[in-house]
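Holo prediction — PBG.
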Amino acid sequence: MSFPETRLRRLRQSPAVRGLVRETSVEPRQLVLPLFIREGLTEPVAIGSMPGVQQHSLDSLRAAAVEAADAGVGGVMLFGVPAVRDARGSGADDPCGILNIATEALAAEVGDALVVQTDLCLDEFTDHGHCGVLAADGAVDNDATLERYAAMALAQARAGSQLLGLSGMMDGQVAVIRAALDAEGFTDTLLLAYAAKYASAFYGPFREAVDSQLTGDRRTYQLDPGNRREGVREAVIDEAEGADIVMVKPAMAFLDVLREVRDTVGIPVWAYQVSGEYAMIEAASANGWIDRRAAILESLLSIRRAGADAVLTYWATEAAHWLRD
Ligand code: PBG
C-alpha cells in the first residue's frame, strides 16, 4: 500500500488536536436575538409556527432581553406588532408607537450590556403589509417610502436604538437615513443594511409572528433567489452609501452569497437565520429525526464559516448558554 504520505486524519485524531486546528467557532457575543413586542399584551403569546418563540408583552420582553444579556448575547433586534395599522404605517415613527416605547424600555434595561437594535421597515405597521407606502397604481413607491424611513430612523434613534436594521430593500435607503440621522446629531447610530435580502419562502413563520397583513409578495423589492451577483452589487452599493454593516438573508439557502459578499466588502457582514430555518430544525427535532442541539450549533457554525461575522438567530440565548458550557 503506497500513496503520497499526506495523512489528513492526523489532524482529527483527538479532541485536543481537533480543537487546535478548528478554523471556525461561534461565540455568544456574535449572536443577535430577534424579539417581538406586541402592543396591548399583558402576557406573552406563543407563535405556533415557531415553537419556543413568543410575541412579548413589555414585561416578558424585558425579561427576555435581560436573559440574553446575562448569557453574553451580543445584541437584541426588536420587531413591533402594533394594534392598529394604516396605509402609511403611522405607528412606526410615532414616539408612542409600540416599537419605540419598547426600545426605550430595553435601552434603559440592557443598553449597556448589549446592543439594542430595531428593525426599520414599514411592513408591520401598514394595513396592506408592504414594506413601503403605495403609489396610486398600487406599486410600492420607493422615494415616498424613503421619507417615511427617515422619519422612522429619527424616532428609533430618539428612543435609544443603537443600531437600525434597514430591512425594507428600497433603493437609496442607507444614504437617505444616514443623512437624516447625521443632520439631527445621531452620528453614532449604527446602520445595518439588509443588502442582500431575498424574496424567500423561508419567511413564512415570521409572517405569523408579526401578524402580517400582506397579500401577494415582495418580488418588486426583495431579490430574486436566483441572483448571486445582484446580491453582491447590493452590498457594494450599501457600503458606498455609508452602511456600517451589511446583511445577507436568509442564511442557509444563501451561503454562497454570504461568502462572496464577505470576500467583496470591507465592512462587517451579518446573516439572518430566518424563521423558516428555525421552524425546520425545530420540527425535525420534535419528530426525533435530528439531534436538536447538534443541528442548531452546526447551522450556526456553517453560517459563520461561510463568512458571517455575526448571526441573527432565534436560538441566540439558548445557544449562548451551550457555547459557554
Ligand atoms: C420584513 C421582514 C421579514 C423578516 C424580517 N423582517 C420578511 C418579510 O416579511 O419579507 C423575516 C424574518 C424571519 O423570517 O425570521 N421587514
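READOUT: Strands lie at 31-38, 45-46, 54-56, 75-81, 115-120, 163-166, 190-197, 245-249, 269-272, 310-312.
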